[in-house]
Design brief:
Elements lengths: L20 E5 L4 E5 L6 E5 L3 E5 L3 E7 L2 E6 L5 E5 L6 E7 L4 E6 L2 E6 L4 E6 L8 E3 L5 E6 L2 E6 L5 E6 L8 E5 L11 E8 L2 E6 L4 E7 L4 E6 L5 E6 L4 E5 L4 E6 L2 E6 L6 E5 L2 E5 L9 E4 L3 E8 L2 E7 L4 E5 L2 H11 L3 H9 L5 H16 L3 H11 L2 H15 L4 H11 L3 H10 L3 H10 L3 H10 L5 H14 L3 H10 L3 H10 L3 H9 L2 H4 L2 H13 L3 H10 L3 H10 L3 H11 L4 H14 L3 H11 L2 H10 L3 H9 L10 H10 L3 H5 L1
Antiparallel strand pairs: 1-2, 2-3, 4-5, 5-6, 6-7, 8-9, 9-10, 10-11, 12-13, 13-14, 14-15, 16-17, 17-18, 18-19, 20-21, 21-22, 22-23, 24-25, 25-26, 26-27, 28-29, 29-30
Length: about 650
């Protein structure tokens, strides 16, 4: 290879007559000349500048835009170079001596000295007011003038920028591929506080806001889980909440929460409420919580060599509480879609409400992934024998080389997606299978709908079978509705009567004059209506066939006075007065005295009208009625009305 030098200065070496060879070490930037007459070796250090930083790092400026940072302790070297050839004028080591920050005229270089990942992003002069946060291992957070900028190490673009005034670790949570989901390319999200009562969750890959959470109290702490599907946050009242990003649902987990943390490499949550250690092994079921009584405060959660312990400070000593690693690993196996490993963990545990929930979750996930043998094992653990047999029959179809469409349809039926199964059958032209599916599920109307849409030749047979099934299962009301839709009104009426529904039978009879002419049928319906206390409907039925005397009697017995008055005015004018008085008496008994006044006046019962007006405190109306009466009985009400006016200070009216 060739090394090109930009010649700036000539250097003469003394006593060098001829040169045997020359070499250049790119790593150490040393240039050597060997083979003079005297056997000497000349070594030249080729760099612009070399400095020692805090007695920990050696910085060698190879060129204006390139610096080699060497750790004096470990000897590792990292090259910090501007890809745009801008001059580097300042280099700092930050974050427990792990991260390098370098400024050029127009860019900013950030790097992780342990992983050797360097990023260069455009950066304008900010006067050195920016603050750097290196809490996340995969990215650096830069806060400047109310704007939070995220830079992923090894990427020369800004990952994302958000506006916030609260730049603390407690109010900001960033997840950069901490635990990638299968099938997902990148999982990069941030949860931060827009203000003290609002949380925003942003997808940094697509730059869209996934959720905005408004809370009624000031927020004290936020943290996304490693897969960025769930968010935990706590308010100043020490209430702990869980937010599901996919369903946008907020759930209250705990009150008086003094400590909370996600267990590393899992979706298990640990929290403390007073003297209780609370663990959610399955965060998808927040009501399933494991509680242990402790005597101190939780200091940390440690997970080392497949063992998870909660460190509790009890004053003089610290005690470690070991968590159930099998339950923790179950969640991790689910996220990794290693369902066989999840089954192994669950088989080693006893059946408890927590493990039952996990078996159920695993069964649904395995069905979605077509892992039928695993789903069968889950339902067996849950004691769901019918589903075990059904899945076994599906597996038998697969083993025999059956159609995949048939398997898809049966799985849709298992998931109660009957319309999906119907669509699969009909796409393949399997009309009989679709009808048989609905019949086996006793969904006869759906089977009839399919038969009618496809003009099936067995449509009438299917209707008869449906009616027979309804009568055999004592569903007379449904059978009556079927007959009514088929215009068999007399049959529908009989079915309604058998079902003890005379009101429906009366409706059918009143809608069809040919039935109304059959007085024995009407009398039978009326008898059943009276037994059920449905006097108004019985009155309507008799009024329809012009048996007004009976209709009026039933209206009065059923206290349906409005219809009774209307009928009496038409057929029995002489009884209107009595019905009005009876109506007024009924309203008085129901403490509806203000409505009773008018009916007593209509009946000519003025004394009763005055009493009702006084009881309803209609004093002016009572006085008007009395003044029109010459009866001695009316005089007894004057003192009562006078006392009322005197009581409210209307002395002139009282005297009158």
């Amino acid at each position: 290879g060739y090394v090109l030098f930009d010649s700036r200065q000539k250097l003469k070496t003394a006593d060098t007559v001829c040169t045997g060879c020359m070499s250049f070490n790119l790593r150490s930037l040393h240039f050597s000349i060997q083979g003079s007459l005297c056997g000497s070796v000349d070594l030249f250090d080729c760099c612009l500048k070399r400095t020692i930083y805090k007695n920990k790092f050696e910085m060698t400026y190879v060129g204006l835009s390139q610096v080699i940072v060497k750790s004096l302790q470990s000897g590792t070297r990292v090259v910090v170079k501007s890809h745009y050839a801008y001059q580097i004028h300042m280099v700092n080591i930050m974050g427990d001596d792990q991260y390098v920050v370098a400024y050029t005229t127009d860019t900013l270089l950030l790097g992780d000295l342990k992983s050797f990942r360097i990023s260069e992003i455009p950066w304008s002069e900010s006067g050195g007011n920016e603050k750097f946060f290196f809490k996340h291992p995969n990215c650096c957070m830069i806060f400047n003038a109310g704007e939070l900028t995220l830079v992923e190490y090894g990427t020369n673009d800004i990952l994302g920028s958000v506006r916030t005034e609260f730049m603390t670790k407690r109010l900001t949570s960033v997840r950069i591929n901490d635990r990638k989901l299968k099938g997902a390319d990148d999982n990069k999200k941030i949860a931060y506080c827009v203000d003290l009562k609002t949380i925003a969750i942003v997808d940094l890959v697509f730059g869209v806001t996934l959720a905005t959470i408004s809370h009624d109290s000031k927020i004290d702490w936020v943290d996304l889980n490693e897969t960025s599907r769930k968010l935990l946050f706590r308010d100043k009242k020490l209430k702990l909440y869980l937010f599901d990003i996919e369903s946008q649902q907020k759930t209250t987990l705990l009150g008086y929460c003094s400590f909370v943390q996600w267990i590393p490499s899992s979706d298990v949550c640990v929290a403390q409420s007073r003297n209780n250690l609370c663990v959610w092994y399955n965060i998808d079921s927040p009501d399933k919580i494991t509680m242990v009584t402790i005597k101190g405060d939780i200091e940390a959660v440690e997970r080392i060599d497949g063992k998870t312990e909660v460190v509790v400070n009890e004053g003089i000593t610290s005690i470690n509480y070991t968590l159930d690693e099998g339950l923790i690993e179950f969640g991790t196996a689910i996220d990794d879609k290693d369902y066989s490993r999840a089954v192994q963990y669950l088989e080693s545990l006893e059946l408890t409400p927590e493990t039952e929930t996990m078996w159920n979750s695993l069964s649904q996930l395995s069905l979605q992934s077509r892992k039928l043998h695993i789903a069968e094992r889950c339902f067996a653990a849950l004691g769901n024998v019918s589903r075990v047999r059904y899945l076994r029959s599906i597996r038998k179809i697969i083993e025999e080389g059956g159609d995949d469409f048939r398997v898809q349809a049966k799985l849709a039926i298992l998931d109660k997606q009957f319309r999906v199964a119907e669509a699969i059958y009909l796409e393949q032209g399997w009309i009989d299978e679709a009808m048989e599916m609905y019949q086996s599920l006793h969904m006869w109307e759906e089977a009839l709908r399919v038969a009618e849409n496809k003009n099936h030749p067995e449509l009438e047979t299917l209707r008869r079978n449906y009616f027979t099934w309804l009568t055999n299962t004592n569903q007379e009301e449904k059978a009556g509705e079927v007959l009514e839709r088929n215009s068999d009104y007399m049959g529908a009426l009989q079915m309604y009567m058998r079902a003890g529904l005379p009101a429906k039978a009366a409706r059918v009879a009143m809608d069809h004059q040919n039935i109304m002419n059959q007085y024995d049928v009407i009398d039978n319906i009326t008898t059943q209506l009276l037994k059920g206390g449905m006097y108004e409907r019985a009155g309507e039925l008799y009024e329809k066939i012009q048996r007004y005397q009976n209709a009026l009697e039933f209206y009065r017995k059923g206290k349906v006075f409005r219809r009774a008055v209307e009928l009496a005015r038409q057929a029995f004018p002489g009884e209107v007065v009595d019905i009005e008085e009876e109506w007024g008496d009924y309203l008085t008994s129901q403490q509806q005295n203000d409505d009773a006044v008018d009916h007593f006046i209509e009946a000519g019962k003025y004394i009763k009208a005055v009493e009702a007006a006084i009881h309803s405190r209609q004093w002016s109306k009572a006085l008007q009625i009395i003044e029109t009466q010459d009866s001695p009985e009316a005089l007894k009400f004057y003192p009562i009305i006078a006392d009322y006016h005197a009581h409210i200070g209307e002395l002139r009216d009282a005297e009158r």
